[in-house]
């Protein structure tokens, strides 16, 4: 989490946070497209490994320039572990899922992060949800169940099994994100945001290194795959982290979290226009149910 220490910087124009919010949603929406392009050549674990390694190399000089290396050394254990939970594991799971699911559907499943976040915070931190938030959890998970059923019910044999496994992988990834959020709240609160972001990517790279090297593709990945995974590391991870932490400082964590709701919009548009994916009314309806449940579960909307 960013430090609460005041910083004497000029006030940003009133329109800048809104612009950065939109750009961040567009960047994270593109991450599903880049992952799908990279994973076909690299495979899931190598894709995740190269992504976090590139992000760590991009962020490390910025962190060193801020003089935050001593802070990373003092808090290395929890920061590195957070990276495995918050980046390494979910990036690998989403990469696997994108071998079997379209980017639009995967991005909608990713929007369940706040739902799992509320459950984990309740179980771990004792943040019990009220009636409105509990209703939101139920609505959100109904939307997920309907999405999963639609994706699996009309397939047969191995195809249905892989689709089910891919949906399960997405939900495990979002649960991992949620656990990392509560872990960060408990063990990393008040630490410099850039240090936490950089250290977490280093931790993810260390955690993924051995399995990624063991599963490294026998054939050299194409130039397009390398371009996609580098874009993932620099744009969708390194630059996106910087923008996200700026939004937290300008808008606060609750309002910044709503970027999760805008990401599927961009991912669906990219998938339809650039990848030729089919967008069905059922998928859009279920996505709307998931987002409505998430808005209630996060407390952004309360029923009287």
Keywords summarizing the entry:
disordered N terminus, mainly alpha, 304 residues, 79% helix
Verbal overview:
By secondary structure, this protein is mainly alpha-helical. It has one domain. It has helices spanning 16-42, 44-65, 69-74, 76-97, 103-110, 113-125, 131-153, 157-187, 193-214, 223-251, 253-257, 259-274, 281-297. α1 crosses α12 and α9 (193-214) packs antiparallel against α10. The protein is globular, with a radius of gyration of 19 Å.
SSE arrangement:
Elements lengths: L15 H27 L1 H22 L3 H6 L1 H22 L5 H8 L2 H13 L5 H23 L3 H31 L5 H22 L8 H29 L1 H5 L1 H16 L6 H17 L7
Helix pairs in contact: 1-2, 1-5, 1-10, 1-12, 2-4, 2-9, 2-10, 4-8, 4-9, 5-12, 6-7, 6-8, 7-8, 7-13, 9-10
Task: Specify the structural class.
Answer: mainly alpha
Total count of strands: 0
In total, the number of domains comes to 1
The coarse silhouette is globular
From the alpha-carbon coordinates, what is the Rg to the nearest angstrom?
Answer: 19 Å
